[in-house]
Design goal:
12 strands; single chain; five-stranded antiparallel β-sheet
C-alpha cells in the first residue's frame, strides 16, 4: 500500500509522466504472509537501448538474491521512461517497453502473468499527413488500488524488453524498480519459484 506524498508532471515531446514518492516507513506493515523483510527500500535502476532502429532487445538485470536463504524480492513500484517515437510523415510510430520476471521474446503486456509493468508511446498519423497525434499508455508506477505490492520475484533476475515501431532512430528506455528483500518460509519459497518458472 502506498501514500502519494507529492507528484509532479513532466512534459517531454508532448508526453506526460508522473513521479510518485513512496513512504518507505509504511512498507513494513504490509509484508505478505510467510515473508520477513531483510532490507530497507531499494531502488534498482536500469537502461536499455536498441541495437538498431525498430529491433527488439531484452536486457537481464541481476538481483543478487541468495537462494540458500530463500531470499525473494518484493516489488512495490516500477517506473518506465521510454524515449519518444519519431515523427514520420504519414507513418504510425511507437516506442514499447515492459518489465517481466522471466525472459520474453517480445514486449509483454499486462495480460502476461510475468509482466509487472509496461509502457507504450504512440504517434498516429493519417496517410499523407505531416501532423500526428501523440498517445501515452502505461501501467501505473504503484498499485492502482489497495494492493500491498506489485509482485514477488523469487529467481535471481528480472528482464526489460524494448522495441520501436516505424522509427528512423534507435530508441531507449530507462527506469527504476522499487522494493525490498525478504526471506520466505521454505514452503512459500518453493511455491513462488515453481509459479515463476511456469510463466517462462
Amino acid at each position: 500500500m502506498f501514500v502519494q506524498i507529492s507528484s509532479k508532471k513532466i512534459c517531454r515531446f508532448n508526453f506526460s509522466f508522473s513521479i510518485i514518492i513512496i513512504n518507505e516507513h509504511l512498507l513494513a506493515y504490509y509484508m505478505p504472509k510467510g515473508l520477513k523483510e531483510t532490507s530497507s527500500l531499494i531502488g534498482i535502476g536500469f537502461s536499455v537501448i536498441e541495437t538498431a532502429a525498430n529491433t527488439f532487445i531484452q536486457d537481464r538485470v541481476d538481483l543478487q538474491l541468495n537462494p540458500l536463504d530463500n531470499e525473494v524480492f518484493i516489488v512495490y513500484a516500477v517506473d518506465l521512461d521510454p524515449t519518444a517515437p519519431d515523427v514520420q510523415a504519414g507513418t504510425n510510430t511507437a516506442t514499447s517497453c515492459s518489465l517481466t520476471t522471466t525472459s520474453r521474446t517480445a514486449v509483454a503486456n499486462l495480460g502476461d502473468s510475468a509482466c509487472l509493468a509496461n509502457a507504450v508511446l504512440n504517434i498516429r498519423m493519417d496517410a499523407g499527413s505531416i501532423e500526428g497525434v501523440p498517445f501515452t499508455r502505461g501501467s501505473n508506477e504503484s498499485p492502482a488500488t489497495q494492493l500491498d505490492y506489485l509482485g514477488i520475484i523469487s529467481t535471481n533476475d528480472f528482464f526489460v524488453q524494448l522495441q520501436g515501431t516505424g522509427n528512423a532512430n534507435v530508441k531507449a528506455v530507462s527506469g527504476k524498480m522499487y522494493g525490498v528483500r525478504a526471506r520466505a518460509d521454505a514452503s512459500v519459497y518453493a511455491a513462488l519459484v515453481q509459479s515463476e518458472v511456469l510463466t517462462q
